[in-house]
Every structure is written in C-alpha cells, then in structure tokens.
C-alpha cells in the first residue's frame, strides 16, 4: 500500500486486504514463507473478483431500477424515440464485440447494442445479441431508422465520444458528431490530467459510486452473449452515470473563475476540435500497400547487408536484437566504455559512435528494424476494406493538451525518411494533399510569454532565429554566422547547428547533461552554452525562474488558454529529482501547451473556411495540419486557409505558416510556382 499505485491498484489492494482480514481469501500454501508482494496481492484480487462475480451479477439484476427499459418491442422502441425527442440532453454509449480486437474496431467488429439515458429513463436496445427479441425480425437499419432524427437533433453526451461516433457512422451511416455536445472524458481531463479517465474509475473516485469493469464481470465473454437481463442494468447504468458525471463536472466548473475558464476551453475549443477529428478519422487517407511491400523488401535487403558487415566487424554472429548478447560483445569483448550499466538502448549506444566503427552500423541497423516493424510491415494491416487507413486521433491525449494518435501514430512517421510518408495519398485521384505547418511556433510562443525583446525583435525583422542564438553563444556576429551557415565544416555552421538544438531544447527543458549528449560535447561546455544563452536572452531566464516559483507556490502552471498542468505531488516530494522535473515541466508546459492550443483554436476558426472550399483536414502531425483539397483549388483559397491558421491568436511576434503541395503522395512536393503555373 505504501508503493506508488494507480487509483485502480489502490482500490484492488484495499479490497484484498479487507477480504484477507475477514477470511474470505488467503495466501496459497506455496507462497507462505515468501515476501508478500504486490504481484501476489493482485493475483489474489483476481481470485476474489471471480468469487464475487456471480454475486455481483445477481445483485446487478436484482437491483435493476424501475426506470431501466429493455427495448425489446416496437412499442418500447417508439417510447425510446419519443423520450429522446422530448429531451434537451441525453447520454449515449454502444456495446461492441468481435474476435481479435474487433470489439475496438468498427470496420471489423459488430455492435451488440447501445444504451441511451434521458433525465427520465435509461434504455438498452439490443441489436445483435444471441438472445433474440421481438425486434429481431427487423433489420438493424430499420430499427436505427426510427431513432435517426431524434439522436441527430438532441444534444448528446458520451464518454470517449470518438469511439461511439465512429461505430455509428461506420455501421449505420449515422452522423452523431454534429449532435455531440460533450465528452465527459475530455471534461475529466480538464479537471485532472494526471489520473486515468476510465468512466468506472472516475465514478468511483469522484462521485463515490463504485462500478464494475466489464472484463471483471464478464471475463472472456463477448457482450452479445451477455444475457439481456444483465446487459440492461450494465449498459444503461453506464449512460445514467455518464449523465451524472457530466452534471458533477459542470457544477465543479462554476466554483471558481479559473474553472469557468476551463469550461470555456472545453466547449469553445476542445469539443469543436474533437468533432473535427471524428470527421477526419472517418474520412481516412489512402495507403499504397504494394509500394509498402516493395519498400519493406528493400529495407530487408539493407538490413541483411548491414548485419553481414556488423558480423564481420564483431567477428561473431550474435543476435543483434538481444540486449544481453550485444551488451556482452560491446562491453565485455570489445571493452567499450559502459555509460549505462550494460544498457544497449539508443541513448547510451549513441555515445559510443566515435569509439568503434561498428557502432554507426548498429545504430543504422536498429533504425531500419524500427522502420520495418512500425511502418512497412505494420501499416498495410491498418488498411480497412475501403482501401484507406483511418487513424485514431486523441485530441487531448497528452497531459500537455497535445494530440496523440494511434493506428498509426502519425507523430512518429519520421520526416527524415520521407519514403514512409510517400505511402500515403489523397483520398481520390482528383484531389491533392496540402500541408500547412506553423513555422517555429514554440519559439514564437516563448518570445511572447517571456516578453524577450531580443527574440521579439528578431522575429519582427525576419532574422534567422538560430543564427541570432548562434551569435550569442559563439562570439561571431549575426552577419558572420549568416554568411557562412551553409559552408560545410565552417565554425559558423557548427555554432548554428548547436544553436538550433539549444533553441528547441530550452523549450523542452533540456539540461546540460542532455545537451552534452545531443551535441556530443563535455557537460561543462554544454553548461557554458546554456549560461551564454540565458545571458543573451535575459527575458527567457526571468520567465523560467518565474515559472519555477509559480509551480513551487501553487502547484500548477497554465497556458495562454487557462489549460493547467498540475504538479502538486511532485513539488511536495522529498525526492529532489521529482522537484527538479516538476520545475522543468513548469518551464516548458506553457510553451508546448500554448502552441498546441493555438493550433486547436485555428481548427475551430477554419471550419467555415474549409466548408467553403470543399477542403478536409486529414492528419495532425506536431505543428502541421495535412489537408485533402480539390485538385483545382486556387492559390487564393490556400492563402485564406493559411492565413486563418496563422491568425488564430495574436502574439507579440508575427506567426507564420508555410504551405507545401503534394499532388500525388505525402511529402512528394512541388513548389507553388510549379503547381499554379
């Protein structure tokens, strides 16, 4: 119990402790005499859950409230439709099933049914259960047809809304995203970004209403096989509690002005962005499976060739993907410096690049392996029956408020290997891809938030920011850096490259140790660069110091939209490294989060503009939006989109966005002049 536990683990450990104390469960004879570990306690929890499961299911059925309705007749379906139509706000949740992960994939799985809660009643409508009802003589589309207009014209609340909206869109062609009013998962993120946001755990912790997770009540049972008398209280209970969670969070928003500001962030920025990316993900992006196969074969050949060269240098054919074998060879046989206690992860291996000629080959070998496993081998399996990849953007996936993405993670597709991006194409031959990317947005936000006059002046006059910084840390003038920055091997080029790393590193709270690793220089030299940087930009030093003071005083910091990063537990820690990490995050969070929030504000502002030109957002990648445009889009239309994106928020410095046009494949660009010639 004294360990660092998630809320879920703490709850489970508490239940095990109580059950052991009351004699319900006990240790296995084989474990007696050994140290009682957390792993053993959680194994006992599984046994306890199994013992309790049947009793919980029986109690769930016995306690089914009178206002829970199993929609198993046409009359009840009409009642459900009328109730939704008469309601100002309803909660919705679907239950799904399918083999091999199909329960999470609307393109492969099936919908067992869905629940709806109004302020009066809570309904569960079974669609594809093994247990049949009177409604099963109807086709699913006919049943959904009776609910289409009510659902599309009522404000909807969901928990993890993209999941439900995508299932209804793919399975039944039902557009619920425009009716989507609130996602209680996003609302919960606004109140506490540090915790897990599963509905059941939020109910237990915030509303003090313990709930059972599906996999505990129904282990290895697809939802369509759950008896309807059990499915009703379970599913309808979810939507009833979603409404209660919505009401509870709305009440929290009214407690203080900073919380009211978060409410505005959620409903004016986050929800419109969530609706946009439900649309984006459903639209999808074409993917060239044949080209991926050819590319994988090419990478495989490179891998074999590198492997052969490495074996020759090592004088041994070890398993290069075995950390133990590689560690023994590098640090035992070759006696290379061991910076990480035998670790062969990339951070420590990169430090050895100059120690032995095999190291650069090893690094390249591992990078090719990652490209194959993450992209050329994996991505073809993400293509759905419509020939497209449909990513899952989580619009508030990171604690900073930034996007995350999966299946595939577009943030991880490496720009330095453009051939991977070439696999992605516009949705149709008569359309093109266009990327509009914020230029150095985090540095512009830093200049604005720190009110750093040197940086502000450089941006206003269009000076190169990395050359400006290089002049501060090198002793050369700005003009000297600019004159020689493209001369290979020149000291001015070296200092500009260092300055670029420092500029972006400071934004991410990079310390002297990390900077030394990145630049491959002694730590003392890295510290001097940082000291010279802050001496040249005193406003940034003042800003960082102020953020450190704020987080130590109030336990959180905010971005320009009022988004919070809560670090209370870390700043109160007796572990100085946790305190240091919290201060580092306090410095970089407002910059990262503000840059991300500016992009989100732009997405909101773009909605009427995109509709005017039949343009669609497909992907979000860092500070870039990838658009699907008509092939005959005008230069003026692209400029209006670019300017809307650039003007989302007024900063102390000009904000610039750059357009890149890809007529056939992502990252295969042509210039504006060529395209509009």
Residue ranges: pLDDT <50 for 5 or more in a row? none
Residues in helix, %: 40-55%
Q: How confident overall, as mean pLDDT?
A: 93
Per CATH, the class of the largest domain reads: Alpha Beta
Query: Largest beta sheet, briefly?
Result: 6 strands, mixed
Fourth-level CATH superfamily of the largest domain:
Ribonuclease H-like superfamily/Ribonuclease H
Strand segment tally: 17
Structural category is alpha+beta
Distance between the termini: 69 Å
What is the CATH topology descriptor of the largest domain? Answer: Nucleotidyltransferase, domain 5
Radius of gyration: 28 Å
Helix segment count? 27
Characterization of this structure:
- This protein is of the alpha+beta class.
- It has four domains: 7-52, no CATH class; 68-283, Ribonuclease H-like superfamily/Ribonuclease H (Nucleotidyltransferase, domain 5); 287-389, Taq DNA Polymerase, Chain T, domain 4; 405-442 and 595-675, Alpha-Beta Plaits (2-Layer Sandwich).
- Helix content is 54%, strand content 12%.
- It has a six-stranded mixed beta sheet with strand order 1-4-3-2-5-6, with helices on both faces. The chain has a four-stranded antiparallel beta sheet with strand order 15-16-12-17. A three-stranded antiparallel beta sheet has the order 8-7-11, with no helix packed on it.
- The mean pLDDT is 93.
């Amino acid at each position: 119990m004294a360990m660092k536990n998630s809320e879920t683990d703490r709850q489970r450990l508490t239940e095990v402790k109580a059950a052991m104390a009351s004699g319900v469960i006990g240790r296995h004879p084989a474990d007696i005499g050994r140290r009682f570990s957390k792993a053993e306690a959680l194994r006992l929890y599984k046994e306890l859950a199994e013992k309790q499961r049947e009793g919980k299911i029986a109690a769930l059925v016995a306690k089914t409230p009178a206002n829970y309705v199993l929609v198993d007749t046409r009359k009840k379906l009409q009642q459900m439709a009328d109730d939704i139509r008469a309601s100002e706000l309803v909660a919705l949740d679907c239950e799904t099933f399918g083999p091999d992960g199909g329960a999470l994939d609307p393109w492969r799985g099936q919908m067992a049914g869905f629940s709806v809660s109004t302020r009066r009643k809570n309904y569960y409508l079974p669609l594809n259960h093994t247990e049949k009802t009177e409604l099963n003589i109807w086709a699913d589309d006919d049943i959904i047809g009776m609910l289409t207009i009510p659902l599309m014209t009522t404000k909807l609340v969901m928990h993890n809304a993209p999941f439900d909206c995508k299932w209804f869109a793919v399975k039944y062609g039902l557009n619920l995203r425009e009716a989507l009013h609130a996602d209680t998962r996003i609302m919960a993120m606004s109140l506490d970004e540090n915790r897990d946001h599963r509905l059941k755990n939020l109910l237990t912790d915030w509303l003090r209403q313990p709930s059972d997770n599906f996999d505990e009540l129904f282990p290895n049972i697809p939802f369509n096989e759950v008896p309807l008398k059990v499915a009703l209280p379970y599913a309808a209970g979810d939507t009833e509690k979603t409404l209660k969670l919505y009401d509870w969070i709305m009440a929290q928003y009214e407690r203080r002005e900073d919380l009211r500001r978060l409410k505005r962030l959620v409903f004016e920025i986050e929800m419109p962005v969530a609706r946009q990316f439900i649309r984006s993900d459903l639209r999808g992006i074409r993917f060239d499976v044949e080209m991926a196969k050819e590319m994988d074969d090419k990478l495989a050949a490179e891998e074999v060739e590198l492997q052969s060269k490495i074996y020759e240098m090592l004088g041994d054919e070890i398993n290069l993907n075995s950390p133990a074998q590689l560690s023994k060879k590098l640090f035992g046989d070759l006696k290379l410096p061991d910076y990480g206690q035998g670790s062969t992860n990339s951070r420590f291996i990169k430090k050895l690049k100059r120690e032995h000629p095999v190291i650069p080959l090893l690094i390249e070998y591992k990078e090719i392996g990652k490209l194959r496993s993450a992209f050329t081998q994996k991505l073809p399996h993400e293509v759905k029956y419509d020939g497209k990849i449909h990513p899952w953007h989580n619009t508030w996936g990171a604690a900073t408020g930034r996007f995350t993405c999966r299946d595939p993670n577009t943030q991880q597709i490496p720009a330095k290997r453009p051939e991977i991006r070439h696999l992605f194409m516009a949705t149709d031959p008569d359309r093109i891809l266009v990327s509009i990317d914020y230029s150095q947005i985090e540095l512009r936000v830093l200049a604005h938030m720190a009110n750093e006059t040197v940086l502000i002046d450089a941006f206003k006059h269009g000076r190169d920011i990395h050359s400006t910084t290089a002049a501060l840390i090198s002793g050369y003038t700005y003009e000297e850096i600019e004159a020689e920055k493209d001369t290979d091997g020149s000291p001015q080029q070296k200092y500009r490259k260092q300055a670029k790393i420092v500029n972006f590193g400071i934004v991410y709270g990079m310390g002297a140790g990390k900077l030394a690793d990145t630049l491959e220089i002694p730590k003392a030299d890295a510290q001097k660069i940082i000291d010279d940087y802050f001496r040249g930009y005193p406003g940034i030093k003042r800003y960082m110091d102020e953020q450190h003071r704020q987080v130590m005083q109030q336990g959180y910091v905010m971005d320009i939209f009022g988004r919070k990063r809560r670090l209370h537990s870390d700043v109160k820690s007796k572990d100085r490294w946790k305190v240091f990490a919290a201060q580092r995050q306090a410095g970089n969070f407002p910059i990262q989060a503000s840059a991300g929030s500016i992009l989100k504000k732009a997405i909101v502002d773009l909605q009427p503009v995109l509709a005017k030109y039949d343009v669609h957002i497909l992907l979000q990648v860092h500070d870039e939006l990838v658009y699907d445009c008509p092939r005959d889009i005008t230069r003026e239309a692209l400029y209006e989109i670019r300017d809307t994106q650039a003007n989302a928020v007024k900063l102390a410095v000009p904000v610039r966005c750059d357009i890149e046009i890809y007529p056939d494949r992502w990252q295969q660009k042509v210039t504006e002049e060529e395209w509009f010639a």
